[in-house]
Predict the 3D structure of the following.
Amino acid sequence: MDQTFVTDLIQRNPVIPLLRLERLPDVLPLVEALQEGGMRAVEIWLPHPRAADVLDALREHCSDITVGAGGVRSAAEVKQARALGVHYISSPGLNPTVIQACAKWRIPCLPGVATTSELLLARELGLKQLILYPAVLPGMRALAQNWYQLDPECRFVAQGRLSQAEAALWLELPNVSGVHAEWLADDEDLQRRQWRVITEKARRATLMPGIRKLGDAVMPPAASSEAA
């Protein structure tokens, strides 16, 4: 599978907000706050009940930001994400049917791994940009370090409700190219609509050690919404 798009995305945007939104009116001010803080890509957790509405709003009003669907678990959800016009999908696991559906519909794909066996299977499928999930579990950083010895070409995005301090530690590893940043818009900030606080969090995230200057949004044509 060609992963040129997701590799370029992570190189330009090593910190990607992963969002779960309850209130549709929060979508635009939240994205504006994140963009003001330097973010150029966002990922919406697809299993969330409001995900489809949020993605519709982003497609209609936010054409200048890269939008991904996260947490994709099945080929059916790949099809749903495709219909919602996302630029890429990510998955917390290594599901061959998800990978096959992404290849069929030419949707850039960022699958997840958590074991060495899954890593070896991912490499056999031609994948080398992957999510490491759940990154918060004890021993996962040591596992990633061992993987670097096993396969130094693979790169990982650490995911799993990390704090900024935890994310910074992950970014010190040579084979970790990015992090999913759920701390940028936590439940308390969203409940209180603390847009300035979120902007400042985003700015601080861009200054973490190991973060290069963030680039522009990566904007391929969105996946076609026409049924196959």
